[in-house]
From TrEMBL:
One of its GO terms (cellular component) is plasma membrane. Interacts with claudin-11/CLDN11 and integrins. It comes from Zoarces viviparus (Viviparous eelpout). It is found in: Membrane. Regulates the proliferation and migration of oligodendrocytes, a process essential for normal myelination and repair. The keyword Transmembrane applies. It is a multi-pass membrane protein. This is Tetraspanin. Belongs to the tetraspanin (TM4SF) family.
Length: 253
């Protein structure tokens, strides 16, 4: 009966190691996705520490690949030292992912304040040229999120670019894609996106942070199961003489 329990735990442990390898790839992908997406919106927040959860996620993903390798070798070789190391590293990663969840919630709450603080400045720096980074950022966001201005298209009236251009129009990135020959003129407001960008940028960045939080929670749960199985195998091995004899016999064979 004891041998059956150990075999079941070992089977689950090997399966979990394969999941860890898959998880490593998924976590690295999520971390890279957060970096790339935040790079598109980096002009709308100034706190670089917002990316800390993404950095930790990538580091955890890399570590999970190593953990999976250690776990497979330890399980196949029946190594008590290897399994103990495996369980200890899993505990460390589990704690790290709990930290990621906490940081994710903290920075998710700060996103709105960061965007509110920065967005007016970015719009005031707009000059309508592709060589200007703030201008590219605003045009990208307005096209991607289907928005115009901070709260609505009328916010453009207060920008330096609008006052200097004196053509009573907003950037063409505010134009609805279904409207041909749209020039962004305010005499035809129906041709423009009606929703402002501030709320949509905040929503987008909060969604991205939630991806990090849910990924960390999901894989933390899997790692807890991995720690449990490793501990079961270690405990059964140390307290079951029949299993120890079987391992020794197999080793000599």
């Amino acid at each position: 009966m004891g041998q059956c329990g150990i075999t079941s735990s070992k089977t689950v442990l090997v399966f979990l190691n394969l999941i860890f390898w898959a998880a490593a790839g998924i976590l690295c992908y999520i971390g890279a996705y957060v970096f790339i997406t935040y790079d598109d919106y980096d002009h709308f927040f100034e706190d670089v520490y917002t990316l800390i959860p993404a950095v930790i996620i990538i580091a955890v993903g890399t570590l999970l690949f190593i953990i999976g390798l250690i776990g497979c070798c330890a399980t196949i070789r029946e190594s008590s030292c290897g399994l103990a190391t495996f369980a200890a590293i899993l505990l460390l990663v589990f704690v790290t992912e709990c930290v990621v969840v906490v940081l994710g919630y903290i920075y998710r709450a700060k996103v709105e304040d960061e965007v509110n603080h920065s967005i007016q400045k970015v719009y005031n720096e707009y000059n309508g040229t592709n060589t200007d980074a703030p201008s590219r950022a605003i045009d990208y966001v307005q096209r991607q999120l289907h928005c115009c201005g901070i709260h609505n298209y009328s916010d453009w009236r207060n920008t330096r670019w609008f006052k200097e251009s004196k053509n009573n129009s907003v950037p063409v990135s505010c134009c609805l894609p279904s409207i041909s020959n749209c020039s962004g003129t305010l005499t035809r407001p129906a041709d423009l996106y009606q929703e402002g960008c501030e709320a949509l940028v905040v929503k987008k960045l909060k969604e991205i942070m939630m991806y990090v939080i849910w990924a960390a929670l999901t894989f933390a749960s899997i790692q807890m199961l991995g720690m449990l199985c490793a501990c079961v195998v270690l405990c059964r091995r140390s307290h079951d003489p029949a299993y120890e004899l079987l391992v020794t016999t197999n080793s000599y064979a």
